[in-house]
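Q: How would the structure tokens look for this protein?
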Amino acid sequence: MIASSVTAAGVLLPATASYAATAPAPQPKPVAAQKVTPGEVGVRAPQVEVIKSIVDSTAKIITIVRNAIEKNQNRPGYVKSLMEGLFYENGQHYNVMVINNSNGFSFNLHGLVYDARVSGIHGTYRVFVFESGEFTNHGDGGWINWGFRGWFTQNGNHVNFRRP
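A: Here is the predicted structure in token form.
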């Protein structure tokens, strides 16, 4: 459950510190001892494997938004960039919805992974990353107002999403 949020680069994003707290601590890999003769030159230092921690998804979303703004100054390109960035950044394992926040919409989403309002030069958009559910756009359609990706069937402005 998302307990708090953060605003960065004009983007309201959920905090992810609670996710990092549940990750198991990395275990150091034992390093074999090396025999060293005094005065010996060129002795190799033990190799240390660096174990990367879980990457903060909020930082990735900020980068996606920044790139979408910089690379796509048109609204359809902005919406597509947000949609594609969220889809691929989440390993192509979840459905994604991006919608103009000024549009009326209703939804019943399950397995919600991410829900944020993204504000930029093209207005405020609501972005969702989720497992399944239903979404209805009560406003204008087209790429300037919404975009979605994943596993779905569409009937006009109503979309049924299923699990991948």
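Residues 1-23, 40-55 have pLDDT under 50 and may be disordered.

Helices lie at 17-21, 57-71, 75-89.

Upvote if useful.
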